[in-house]
Amino acid sequence: MMSEMLDKLSEQILSILPGTNCCGLGGCGKSTCRECAAAIAEGESITLCPACSQEQADMIAEVTGRDPVPVQKKVAFIACSGSATGLERHSICGSCEAAKAYGFVRGECKAGCLGIGDCVNVCTFEAMTLEDHAIKIDREKCTGCGACAHASACIQKIIYMVPADATNFIPCSSTEEDEEIVRQTCGYGCISCGECERACPVGAISIINNHAVIDYDKCEGCEACAVKCRKKIIIDEYHDITKLKEKVAFVACNGGFIAGEIYKSKGFDKCAEAVKNRDPKELNLCTTGCVGLGDCTLVCRYDAIHVEYGTAFVDVDKCVGCRDCTYACPKGLISIVPYKGVKMVPCSTTNDYDEKNKVCAVCCEGCQDCMNNCPNGAIYFEDNHAVIDTELCENCNICQYVCFKGVIAERAVPESNYLQRDALKIGKESE
Known about the structure:
Layout: H1 2-16, H2 33-41, H3 54-64, E1 74-78, H4 96-102, H5 118-122, E2 128-131, E3 134-137, E4 159-163, E5 168-169, H6 179-185, H7 195-199, E6 205-208, E7 211-214, H8 224-228, E8 235-236, E9 247-251, H9 259-265, H10 271-277, H11 295-299, E10 305-308, E11 311-314, H12 324-328, E12 334-338, E13 342-344, H13 353-359, H14 369-373, E14 379-382, E15 385-388, H15 398-402, E16 409-411, H16 419-423
Helix pairs in contact: 1-2, 1-3
């Protein structure tokens, strides 16, 4: 009699469950939905099936005579941008397992998404698709069943179930220790600097195996990690990280306006190649100036740096201070400076007066008038050009007034855009 009652209850529960078997890979740990329903009927949690909605869980509570249980809806998240692994094997490997066995080539991330789509094949809710060898998740369709996160579906073990209302994400699982290799491999690679971990007010972020991981049981969705992330890879769906920033890139060159075109005429299309293979003196160009072929623009994920008249310029409204461009510049002309209204000297010339004026009309003359008149001692000279200490600069305008060539530039930012000041209070007061 008891067995018949359990069978009947099990059938009722089965009719309530989402009804698509998760290939035995779902979070319930059962081989089929029928087994899951039977386990619930026999006393296991009414939320044993992670794909159940709150409405379905309430219905199960009603037919079993148990108290309702709140359901925390979860969705799948792939901790990888999908841009640095599997590029060589998509056409010859039929599965992620085969692709991993095939091996990796130089320049690939060994810990990233292989992009073949084993996880897509086990998703019975059609929430995952493969687009240009990158896995896309439709969060509206995802039920959080957990099948894709099973080790047999993701051999890289980089798919996690996260709260559906989560707003911060770190799309990286890199285990690489060398920061420069990470930057060369992937624009979204975590360099494990630990800034996010130190900034989190609730201890929700840890550096594990050389990449940052968020503990969603602790995360409160504040913007601290996104603001502090050096590479600006933390996806923050609540705030605009193009404004929530402390620093931006700066190119220490005013430009001779012709370098890029001259190098192109000599057959070069990359700054690094031009610097390595051609002496700028032979071309009557500044030896320290911007090459102007745009290596820096290729690595910028925010379209914040572009080349105008042969020189790279930064759009501070778009720049997030991720530093990728600083690594891409073969001459080391790009640095990271405070995102505030301070003065900067866009020149790095090391030539003497006569030589620098032969190749550039907008260079620092080296007259030292700016240094001699700065009331805070914020300006000093290094290798024949002025340098401004942004920590000491108070933006008083005297240096600009005395610079007869008008070289010194102001990195002005409207007061209305100083959102990072509120952001660093840690919280949502600025919203």
